[in-house]
Amino acid sequence: VRLRDQKKTEQLAEVSRGFEMFLDQISKRKQGNNFSSLNWVAETFAGMGAGFDPGGTILPPEAKKYYSKAADTYRTIIKRCEANDKEFAAPPGAATSIKIRLARCLRRLGENKQSMRLLLDILKKRPTMVDAQVQAAYTYQSWGEQKPGYYDLAIKGSRKYKQIWGWGRIAKRVAGSESESHRLVFHESRYNLALCRFKLAQSKTGSEKTAALKRAEKDISVTQRLFPEMGGQEWFDKYDRLLKQIQKLRGVKADGLKMGKTANTSRK
Question: Is 250 buried (19+), middle (13-18) or exposed (0-12) by CB count in 10 A?
Fold first, then answer.
C-alpha cells in the first residue's frame, strides 16, 4: 500500500512478482502445508491485492489477480477445515473467520452474490457476529454501485434476510461498547451510513435527491454532536471530506465540520 500511495508502480510490480512465485510454490506443494502456512499465503495474497487496489469501482488487473489467488487459497483452507483434517491443525472456529475473509475478496472481485451467500450462512447461525455484519453491509454497498437500491439495504439491512443489520443497526449495537475495536466499527458504520445516503442521492432527482442529501448531512452532524472527537483525526478528516461533498451537491457553502470541535479529544 505504501508503494502504491507513493506511485512507485514499477517497484511495486517487481516486488510483487518475486513474492508471487514464492507464495505459489508454498501453496502448491503437496505436503507440509498446515493452517498457519496456508493462512499466511492467503493473507499475503490479499494484502498484495490491496496494494494494487485504489478502492474504486474499477479493479486493476494486478489487484484482481492477487485477490483471486487469495480467494482460491481461502477455499482450500475452508475445505480442509471442514474435512476435520487433524494434521492441518486449524484453530477451533477457523472456518468461519476464513469465510468472512473470502467474502471480502469476492466482494472486491465484484462477486457480490457469492460474497453475500457466505455471509448470510454465517449470520443465520451467528447474527451478532460484528465482523460478518460489517462485510454484509459492505457487500450491499458494493452492489449499490450497479443497482442504487442496494444502498438502502446497506443502510437499513434486509427485510427478507432479517439477520443482516445494515450500517444503521451495526452502529447502534456497538455504540455503547468500551471496546476499542467496536469504537472503530461505530465510526466506520456511521461514516458509511452517510456515504450510502450520499451515493443514493446521486441516483435521484428533485425533492428525493434533496431529502437524501439532507439526511446524509444530518447523519454526520448527529455523530459530531454525540461524539465531538469523531473517532480521531483520521475519521474526522474522512467525515469532513464527505460532508463537503454533500454540501457542494446540495448547493450550499461547503465548509465541512465545525472547526470548534476537536478531532483529537480522547474519550474517557
Answer: middle
Instruction: Evaluate whether 168 touches 156 at the Cβ level (below 8 Å).
Output: yes
3-state secondary structure of 54: coil
Contacts of 203 (CB under 8 A, 6+ apart): 148, 151
Distance, CA of 30 to CA of 253 (rounded, Å): 62
CB-CB contact of 39 with 89 (8 Å): no
Amino acid (one-letter) located at 266: S
Cβ-Cβ contacts under 8 Å for 97 (sequence gap 6 or more): 131
User: What grid cell was written down for 245?
Assistant: 461533498
**DSSP codes, 233-264:** HHHHHHHHHHHHHHHHHHTS----S-TTS-TT
Contact 135, 100 (CB under 8 A): yes
pLDDT digits (tens), the chain, 268 positions: 454 455 455 665 666 776 787 788 888 887 789 999 999 999 999 999 998 898 888 899 999 999 999 999 999 999 999 998 888 999 999 999 999 999 999 999 999 999 999 999 999 999 999 999 999 999 999 999 999 999 999 999 999 999 999 999 999 999 988 899 999 999 999 999 999 999 999 999 999 999 999 999 999 999 999 999 999 999 999 999 999 999 999 999 999 998 654 444 433 3
